[in-house]
Amino acid sequence: DGGITQSPKYLFRKEGQNVTLSCEQNLNHDAMYWYRQDPGQGLRLIYYSQIVNDFQKGDIAEGYSVSREKKESFPLTVTSAQKNPTAFYLCASRADKYSNQPQHFGDGTRLSIL
Amino acid sequence: GEDVEQSLFLSVREGDSSVINCTYTDSSSTYLYWYKQEPGAGLQLLTYIFSNMDMKQDQRLTVLLNKKDKHLSLRIADTQTGDSAIYFCAEMRSNYQLIWGAGTKLIIKP
Fold it and tell me: How far apart are CA B41 and CA A102, in angstroms?
């Protein structure tokens, strides 16, 4: 089955620590996205990538970093500079950025502070 | 304004119809989407409508689009307990940017 796999499902971060959230897709999609979801709020875009080795900041990129070394993979690192990282993180992909095809989502990673 | 707006909560009785409303912002938006999110899960695409359509029906789901008022609605017929979730509306703007509403939590009363 084609889809998006996020891991881990739950993650805990200690003060001053960087943590990396994994996102893998086998849909052969060019575009991939990371969103942050807080209770009672919509999705806020952190970073997106249209193609391998290229990515752009979204609306709330501060304190986060990404890489796109392979088409299938778009990991997100939450750095110690992100002072309020507790949230639900969602990865999505789409055929390409200029497509009207809908975004497909993974099941999310819930990040909490220890 | 810049935001896609939705009410935060909707409560309906099991078996009744649910109507979830959304107001979007860009009259040149091309596609409008409805997603469903169950607790602790990702977003699942329910349906989407192209901006030159007025209505789209898919089994128990009916989407209505009023372009003049930039208003989108999702009607769920014969609402069941499995429909309990958060429903997100999103608009695809002409620059391919996707703008999300804050989500409407659908609560089903027995």
Answer: 18
